[in-house]
Automatic annotation (TrEMBL):
Membership in a protein family: Belongs to the UPF0437 family.
InterPro entries: Helix_hairpin_bin_sf (IPR029012), Put_N_fixation (IPR007774)
UniProt entry tagged with the keyword DNA damage: no
Annotated keywords: Coiled coil, Nitrogen fixation
Ranges in coiled-coil conformation: 4-31
Domain of life, per lineage: Bacteria
Name of this chain's protein: Rop-like family nitrogen fixation protein
Keyword Transit peptide: no
Length: 67
């Protein structure tokens, strides 16, 4: 598998994880004030996955532009 294909696969997986993290954060927000102590952990998880997704998208764009 080429580097481009591997990176595209990575981005798709990260997009899926990011969507799940977003929904978890959304569900937590809807249930507030129940489980308010979970806010930092859930938000941090979402932040990390979106950060990783952003970096992978930038890497993919750079790779696509270099070809």
């Amino acid at each position: 598998m080429s580097d481009l294909a591997l990176l595209q696969k990575k981005v798709r997986k990260l997009q899926s994880r990011a969507g799940a993290a977003k929904m978890e954060l959304h569900d937590l927000a809807e249930d507030l004030p129940v489980n308010w102590t979970e806010i930092k952990a859930v938000a941090w998880k979402a932040f990390e996955v979106f950060s990783e997704l952003d970096a992978a998208k930038q890497e993919l764009a750079a790779l696509e532009n270099s070809q």
